């Protein structure tokens, strides 16, 4: 997202800094001087010094959030905006802080959160055309972002997971299976030998009976 698209965001940040520049103590004053020169790292360091001396210094907190936004330190910037919003009771000031928070989030492509911040601004100042315009831009970008994400999600779902590789049997398991196979083979051979022995025994019995009965085979006799 280019500078031209969000030019109003940059104006919002500079205007916020100008408002609070007149309030500051020595650290805030030097921080503002560094900010005006584009030396945002020095500005951040000065504002942090001011907060270390006076944690309740709202001017230092707000300007720190703005400078961190310029350095793309979105998480820290948003956290300081939230602290400033919580500490202030002035609805107009809260609306402006939510606006600048939305700017920081939109620059970092966190459009869903940016939308909420701009909506908070418009709840207090519904006549704020800049907030309304940037809300619409953030909504449009959020829609594009979601549309890009959907095909990727579907593609990931369609990917088939490869089957897990077969587990290698250890030597002990292989030996055990081999013994079982041998045992089964032995049992089969033993059973066949036993059946053959029974057949032979039955045959001999039939022959003896035939001899006693004069060569006649008994009724219902079985030939195994």
UniProtKB/TrEMBL annotation:
Q: Which InterPro entries match?
A: ARM_TT21_5th, RPAP3, TPR-like_helical_dom_sf, TPR_rpt
SUPFAM superfamilies for this protein: TPR-like
User: Boundaries of each Tetratricopeptide repeat protein 21A/21B fifth ARM repeats domain copy?
Assistant: 34-123
Segments of this protein annotated with the region Disordered: 142-224
One cellular-component annotation, GO: protein folding chaperone complex
PROSITE patterns in the cross-refs: TPR
Q: Which Pfam families match?
A: ARM_TT21_5th
Ranges annotated as biased composition (Basic and acidic residues):
142-179
Record's keyword terms, sorted: TPR repeat
Identify the stretches annotated as TPR repeats: 24-57, 95-128
Q: Which PANTHER family match?
A: RNA POLYMERASE II-ASSOCIATED PROTEIN 3 (PTHR46423)
Q: What is this protein called?
A: Tetratricopeptide repeat protein
């Amino acid at each position: 997202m280019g500078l031209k698209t969000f030019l109003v965001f940059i104006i919002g940040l500079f205007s916020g800094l100008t408002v609070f520049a007149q309030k500051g103590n020595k650290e805030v004053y030097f921080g503002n001087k560094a900010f005006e020169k584009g030396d945002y790292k020095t500005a951040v360091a000065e504002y942090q010094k001011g907060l270390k001396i006076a944690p309740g210094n709202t001017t230092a907190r707000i300007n720190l959030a703005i400078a961190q936004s310029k350095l793309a330190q979105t998480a820290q910037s948003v956290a300081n905006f939230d602290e400033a919003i919580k500490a202030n009771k002035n609805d107009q000031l809260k609306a402006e802080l939510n606006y600048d928070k939305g700017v920081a989030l939109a620059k970092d492509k966190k459009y869903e959160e940016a939308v909420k911040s701009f909506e908070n601004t418009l709840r207090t100042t519904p006549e704020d055309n800049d907030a309304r315009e940037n809300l619409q831009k953030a909504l449009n970008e959020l829609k594009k972002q979601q549309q890009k994400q959907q095909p990727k999600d579907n593609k990931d779902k369609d990917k088939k997971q490869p089957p897990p590789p077969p587990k290698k049997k250890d030597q002990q398991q292989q030996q055990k299976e081999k013994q079982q196979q041998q045992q089964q083979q032995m049992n089969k051979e033993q059973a066949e030998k036993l059946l053959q022995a029974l057949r032979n025994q039955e045959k001999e019995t039939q022959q003896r009976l035939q001899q006693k009965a004069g060569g006649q085979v008994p009724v219902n006799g079985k030939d195994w």
